[in-house]
Amino acid sequence: MALQQTPVDVGGIVRPAGPLDLATALQPHVGRLGERSAAHLLRRAGFGGTPDQVRRYAAMTAGDAVESLLTVPPVSSITPPQELEDLGRPVSMATDPLQRSMLGQAMTPRRERAREGRDAIFALQLWWLNRMLSTPAPLQEKMTLYFHGHFTSRATPLYPWITYNQNALFRRYALGNLRDLALELSKDAAMLIYLNGAQNVAAHPNENYARELMELFTLGVDNYSEEDVRESARAWTGWRVDRRTDTVTFDAPLHDSGVKTFLGRTGNFTGDDIIGIIFAEPQCAKFFAASLLNLFVYNDPEPQLVDHFAALLRRHDFELTPILGTILASNLFYSPRAYRALVKSPVEFVVGTYAALGVEAIDSVAPDALTQMGQRLFFPPNVAGWPGAKNWLTSGTMIARQNFLTRLLNSQTLTDSSWLQRLPLASSAAARRLAQTILQGDAAPEGLFELEGYLSGTGTAALAPLSVENYDQRVRGAAYLAMATPAYQLN
C-alpha cells in the first residue's frame, strides 16, 4: 500500500514528495546506523547523545541499538533528590515508628512549608533534568516526560512528595502497560487533587476527571457523550486523599453503587470497570497509536499508519515495549520524511545541548531557562498540557533559546569539560567538525560557509584569523552559530 507524501521544507531539510510504500516503511531497518541515523535515534528515543555515544551507536544495527534502549534499570534503584529527603517523608512513607510519631506531631507553619516545598520542587526539576542527561536508559526518561505532558497534573508545593510519587509512577510504566498505567494514575494522589477526584462523592459527583480521562487521555474529542461523562464520574466516586500522609484510600460509603450505563454498556461499574471499557474501545488504540507516532515519527501521521499501530497495540494488549521497539527499528523511523521532522521541545533542546557539548551535569540556571522557553517542568499550562510542535517556536522563545546558548557557551562549566577545546586550529577543519558533531552534517552550504568565515575572520576587521590567542572565544561563537541554525531546533 502506498501513502501519498507531500514535500516539506523545514529548517532547510526537504522531505521527498511522492508515495510512501507502507509495506517497505514498516520493515526493520537493516545495516549499521552510521552517525547521522544514530544521532537521530538518540534524539528521538532520548534527548540526544554525546559525541562518544553517537559514535558508539553508529556502529550498531538498528535492532541492536533499539534493544539497548529498551533495557531499563529497576525503578527501585532510583532515589529521590536529597533536598526532598531532607524535607522529610510523609508519615505514611516513614518506616520507623518513632519517626512516624515525630512526623505526625510536626506542625510546620503553612507559609514555611510552602517555601520549603517550592525549593523541593525546584530541586526535583534539576534532579530530573540531570537524570535525562546522564541516565543509562534515556528512553525510560523520554517516556516519563511524555506521560508527564499527556496525563497532566500540576505540582503542589505544599505536598512535593506527591509530585515525586507521580513522576516515579510514570517512570515505572515508561515501557509498561498503558491500561495498567491509566488505572493506577486514576487513583494517584496528584491526579486526584488536580482534577478534583478527591472531592468526587456520590451525593455530588465531580465530572472533571471523568471528562479529561476520555477527551485528553484515552479517546479524544467527539468519542463519548455527556451522559458517558456523568456515568463515569459516578463510577469514580469515593476516592480520598489524606494530604498529611499522601495516602489514597477508597471510602465505600461515598461511592455511588448504583447501576450505570457507560459507552453502551450497563452494570454496577467502578472506576476499574471504566478503564476496562475504555481500553476495549477501538478508538482508544487509535488514539494512543497516533500520539506515539506524533512523538517518535512525525506529526499528522497517515490514517493507514495509525490503523496499523493501533492493531499492533491491541495485539500486544497495550504493552509498550514491543510497540516502541517496532517503531524505532523501522524503515519509517529512519526515512527522510521522519528525519528532523519534529520541533525540539525546550527540555529536548536544553538537555540535548548539554549532551552535544559533552557537559556532564546540568546546572541550576536550566529550570529558569526552560520556563523562559515555555516549558516549566511539573507546571504544564493546563490539563491539555503543552501544545508543542511549532508552538514551541515564537519570537520570544527563540530569544530565550539564544540567551541560554550564550550563557552556557560562555560558562566555566563548558571550559572544564567540552570537546570544543580539542577542535583543530585550521578554520575549515574546525567548521566541518562543528557541523558534523553538532548538526551531523545538516548544515546548508551557506551555513558551513558562514562558520568557516567566522572562524577565519573573513570580512570582519574586529576578528583576527583563528589562532591560539583567540581560539576559545572564536570556537564558542562558532558553536553558537551552529546551534542557532533552524536545523538544530529540530529533532
Describe the structure.
The chain is mainly α. It contains 24 helices and eight strands. Among the domains are: 172 residues, no CATH class; 144 residues, no CATH class. A two-stranded antiparallel ribbon has the order 1-4. Strands 2-3 form a two-stranded antiparallel sheet. Strands 5-6 form a two-stranded antiparallel ribbon. A hairpin with a 2-residue loop joins strand 2 and strand 3. Helix 7 packs across helix 18 and helix 22 packs across helix 23.
Mean pLDDT: 89
- Alpha plus pi helix count: 24
Q: From the helix content, strand content and strand pairing, which structural class follows?
A: mainly alpha
The largest sheet, given as strand count, sense and whether it forms a barrel, is:
2 strands, antiparallel
Quick structural gist:
With 491 residues, the protein is mainly alpha-helical. The chain contains 24 helices and eight strands.
